[in-house]
Write a structure and sequence with these properties.
Strand content: 5-15%
Helix content: 10-25%
Structural class: alpha/beta
Strand order of the largest sheet: 1-2-3-4
Largest sheet: 4 strands, parallel
Radius of gyration: 17 Å
Number of strands: 4
Mean pLDDT: 81
Distance between the termini: 22 Å
């Protein structure tokens, strides 16, 4: 049985130097942003929740994670002490909005991608996000499964991911492509039919 507690990942091969672009002075993260403006705008527009992409397919983590150096901690933004997830959740809470997080399973940076060790790393990242930032209303995944840095594809352990969310944030809804709680609408247009309950068949999603 895999160990589902968060381990110290500093000794793993997955923890490697971030690509050089993360520490260049012109890196996008260095641009000054006023933390609360998006949350205020969302509240004024009638939104009740916001979702932040905490990690996309490039594997760059917007919080200081123990699982990789490919994160904001390697950026000059806020002197390497910044935490986008913290600022996002604080701003959402201040405006009375529910905060949600998207964590891409596909990771083009992690050396372990394409092996069972990556499922451990991914669960460690979920644990960090679901235990540090207070209530999380939704956790978004997706089924994208391209090649990693080593040219391999990953066998995602969906039941383990969903169980981690359920254990650490029992009131959060999970949105992978096909359940278990919230289903993808079936398109990228942002518009779904009257009922999206059967837009995606779970059996057809690997």
């Amino acid at each position: 049985m895999p160990n589902d507690t968060l381990r110290d990942s500093s000794s793993r091969q997955d923890v490697e130097e971030a690509p050089a672009y993360a520490s260049r002075p012109e890196a996008p993260m260095q641009r000054r942003r006023e933390r609360d403006t998006p949350a205020r705008a969302a509240k004024a527009a009638g939104f009740r929740a916001m979702i932040l992409t905490a990690k996309h397919h490039d594997g760059f983590c917007l919080w200081p994670t123990a699982t990789t150096r490919h994160s904001v901690a390697a950026s000059p933004w806020r002197g390497g002490a910044g935490d986008v997830v913290r600022e996002f959740t604080d701003a959402a809470n201040a405006e009375g909005l529910r905060a949600g997080l998207y964590l891409s399973p596909w990771d083009r940076n992690a050396p372990s991608y394409g092996s069972s060790r990556y499922n451990d790393l991914y669960c460690d990242q979920l644990t960090e996000l679901l235990t540090r930032y207070g209530p999380i209303a939704e956790v978004w995944f997706d089924g994208a499964n391209g090649e990693g840095a080593n040219g391999r594809h990953q066998a995602y352990d969906w039941p383990r991911y969903w169980a981690r969310v359920r254990r650490l944030q029992p009131n959060a809804g999970s949105l992978p492509d096909a359940g278990p709680d919230i289903r993808w609408s079936g398109n990228e247009r942002g518009v779904a039919g009257w009922s999206a309950s059967v837009a995606v068949e779970p059996e057809g999603v690997g």
